[in-house]
Write a structure and sequence with these properties.
By secondary structure, the protein is mostly helical. 80% of the residues lie in helices and 0% in strands. Helix 1 runs antiparallel to helix 2, helix 1 packs antiparallel against helix 7 and helix 6 packs antiparallel against helix 8. The longest helix has 37 residues. The protein starts with a helix and ends in a 9-residue tail after the last helix.
């Protein structure tokens, strides 16, 4: 039993790695998507709108399987069309990270878009009047203020993303859920090991809530706080 417990706990590190890597992708896509939706260019607005609508309307599991299995088939067909023969293997880690990041980037898009809209436009216009570039205005004026408005939605998205990492076990990634299922099957004690996996996720979400609440208090100084 001790060896199986250690294997489950070792999978917890991979789960955290997948979660953080996916979060990085989601934040990047969310900022780009929010900027596109708020831009004056109709093609960008339409593209961002299609992205958020499509992703939020399709289950995470289907998208994950499409990327992992469908991507492999698509690359093989592409190589055959080009007259090339090669073995194609999509890395489960990259597939999981990119798919989860792509999915939650759509949710982050709406979170960041709402936060940007909450900031008065006059502040950016004043920065431009003082000669600040759009990039400098974003990092010096917009970003510090939007954090306060984005944190409640960001917290919710992050907590859901952590739990969604359990799906990567279905494509062979040896995360905490995969090891828990393997240990349960080997020892015929699935309930025990699934409870252990649940405890790992609960620990991650509890620590995340504590950290994000502290961050919320930091950015809410001098204003009405929004509880997380």
């Amino acid at each position: 039993m001790d060896g199986h417990v250690l294997s489950v706990l070792s999978g917890a590190q991979l789960t955290l790695t997948v979660s953080l890597a996916s979060l990085g992708v989601a934040i990047a896509l969310g900022l780009l998507g929010a900027a596109a939706k708020l831009s004056q260019r109709r093609p960008l607005v339409a593209l961002a709108g299609a992205y958020t609508t499509l992703v939020r309307g399709v289950p995470e599991l289907i998208l994950l399987l499409l990327v992992y299995y469908g991507g492999t088939i698509g690359l093989i067909l592409l190589l055959e069309r080009l007259g090339l023969e090669a073995e194609v293997n999509i890395d489960p880690f990259m597939a999981g990270v990119l798919t989860l990041g792509f999915i939650y980037g759509a949710f982050m898009t709406e979170t960041f878009r709402g936060a940007m809209l909450a900031i008065p436009k006059g502040q950016a216009e004043a920065a431009w009047a003082f000669g600040m570039s759009p990039a400098r205005t974003f990092f010096r004026i917009t970003l510090p203020q939007m954090v306060r408005y984005a944190l409640p939605g960001f917290t919710n998205n992050w907590l859901v993303l952590i739990k969604a990492t359990a799906l990567v076990s279905l494509i062979g990634l040896h995360d905490v859920t995969f090891h828990a299922m393997q240990a349960g099957a080997a020892t015929r004690e699935p309930f025990y090991f699934l409870l252990l996996a649940a405890a790992v996720f609960l620990a991650y979400t509890t620590v995340s809530l504590w950290a994000l609440r502290a961050l919320n208090r930091r950015y809410a100084l001098g204003s009405t706080q929004v509880s997380l």
